[in-house]
């Protein structure tokens, strides 16, 4: 199974004005779709970020992989490492510090997933079986709530409407739970004064008694604020996610609040694990195969977490169905991933590059797709439409702060701000 050809296609799809500590989502979200084709005519799919600097590395790497066997992932990683010469950072900073290793892992992941898709198709088994077999038939996801404007400025309101206060947040949760059946809730914070976000959690706790809740201010709070908020929310949070920046800051908070702390910001690559574990900075790691180097490397990290007593959840950016399928296969094969995963899927409102039908939500969980490989098929018409949207949307990298500054010229991204 020799790689003959790799198609790399950037796409854009509509995204609502979701607010976070970095600013606000632009009207279009970007992704890159990777299709690896072998000499035997088998093809496999991968999905990754769409920012131009990353896309360029993905394109350059694709050329370097032609001629390799789809099983040769160590050689694939080495070739990609030699192509990815420098560190690629996101403007939004929401997934923590960029390092060289993380930059390579991010590029490698899309190709690794595509090769696993091919290997699963060739063997007639789902990707889950290549990762050790399923420990759950369906993967639970959480309702991922955002403060948001009713619509993008100058455009019609979207169907989710405005959510700028506790009542709006509760209404958004009710809509998501009604449509998807989610059984846990995450609120993206770091947008308003901490008191207002604490009130929103209290309102959710009252409206959905017993439902596990998380709050994620994306490091917008100081240590002192995090401790105060954590204590005020005692008994109401399953975990508090990245209240404050960096491992030492998280360690100080963790020692003083009653709930576990989770992260997708201070532990984002292997070198962060030893200090975080030594300092007891986090109790829950949000895995994300897109930057932890694909599915197999993520499974290795999961195993390390089991050794050191860290629990697991899963992080999500705006994504499409190839990513949802990959996330579901990984989570279904990871025994210690016991918290419901994050997903942006509801915000994508049905837009996708995969043929509808193989991915669905049942009681808030996605059943592992039945077909071989990832179990999803590329919808080539949809891909062409979304690629055209990419060419015309005028956005080449995600810039939440820059977009926010169009409406609030003094805005700066919030880090240990409150
Ligand atoms: O910290 C997190 O969970 C994220 O970074 C998730 C997403 O990036 C989210 O914050 C977003 O897209 O605004
Ligand atoms: Mg987070």
From TrEMBL:
SUPFAM superfamilies recorded for this chain?
Enolase C-terminal domain-like, Enolase N-terminal domain-like
- Which cofactors does this protein require? Mg(2+)
Write the record's keywords in alphabetical order, separated by commas: Lyase, Magnesium, Metal-binding
Pathway in which this enzyme or protein is active = Carbohydrate acid metabolism; D-glucarate degradation; 2,5-dioxopentanoate from D-glucarate: step 1/2
Reactions listed under catalytic activity: D-glucarate = 5-dehydro-4-deoxy-D-glucarate + H2O
One family from Pfam that matches here is: MR_MLE_C
Q: What is this protein called?
A: glucarate dehydratase
Species per Swiss-Prot/TrEMBL record: Nonomuraea indica
């Amino acid at each position: 199974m020799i790689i003959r050809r790799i198609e790399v296609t950037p796409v854009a799809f509509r995204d609502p004005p979701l607010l976070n500590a970095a600013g606000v989502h632009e009207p279009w979200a970007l992704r890159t779709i990777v299709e690896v084709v072998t000499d035997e005519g088998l093809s496999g799919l991968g999905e990754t970020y769409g920012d131009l600097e990353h896309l360029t590395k993905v394109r350059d790497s694709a050329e370097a992989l032609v001629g390799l066997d789809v099983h040769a992932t160590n050689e694939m990683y080495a070739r990609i490492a030699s192509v990815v010469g420098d560190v690629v950072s996101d403007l939004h900073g929401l997934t923590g510090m960029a390092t060289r290793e993380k930059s390579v892992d991010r590029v490698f992941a899309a190709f690794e997933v595509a090769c696993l898709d091919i290997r699963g198709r060739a063997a007639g088994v789902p990707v889950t079986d290549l990762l050790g077999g399923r420990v759950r038939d369906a993967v639970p996801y959480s309702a991922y709530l955002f403060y948001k404007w009713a619509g993008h400025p100058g455009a019609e309101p979207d169907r989710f409407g405005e959510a700028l206060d506790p009542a709006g947040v509760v209404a958004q949760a009710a809509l998501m739970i009604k449509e998807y059946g989610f059984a846990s809730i995450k609120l993206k914070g770091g947008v308003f004064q901490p008191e207002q976000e604490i009130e929103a959690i209290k309102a959710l706790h009252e409206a959905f008694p017993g439902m596990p809740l998380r709050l994620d201010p994306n490091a917008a709070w100081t240590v002192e604020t995090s401790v105060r908020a954590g204590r005020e929310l005692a008994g109401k949070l399953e975990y508090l996610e990245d209240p404050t920046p960096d491992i030492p800051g998280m360690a100080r908070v963790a020692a003083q609040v009653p709930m576990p702390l989770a992260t997708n910001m201070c532990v984002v690559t292997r070198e962060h694990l030893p200090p975080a574990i030594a300092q007891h900075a986090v109790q829950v790691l949000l895995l994300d195969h897109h930057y932890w180097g694909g599915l197999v490397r993520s499974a290795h990290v999961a195993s390390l977490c089991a050794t050191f007593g860290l629990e697991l959840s899963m992080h999500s950016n705006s994504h499409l169905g190839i990513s949802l399928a990959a996330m579901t296969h990984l989570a279904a094969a990871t025994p210690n991933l016991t918290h419901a995963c994050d997903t942006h899927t509801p915000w994508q409102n049905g837009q996708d590059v995969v043929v509808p039908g193989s991915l669905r939500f049942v009681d808030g969980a996605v059943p592992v797709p039945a077909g071989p490989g990832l179990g999803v098929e590329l919808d080539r018409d949809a891909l062409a439409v979304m690629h055209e949207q990419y060419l015309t949307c005028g956005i080449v990298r995600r810039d939440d702060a820059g977009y926010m500054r169009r409406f609030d010229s003094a805005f700066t991204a919030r880090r240990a701000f409150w």
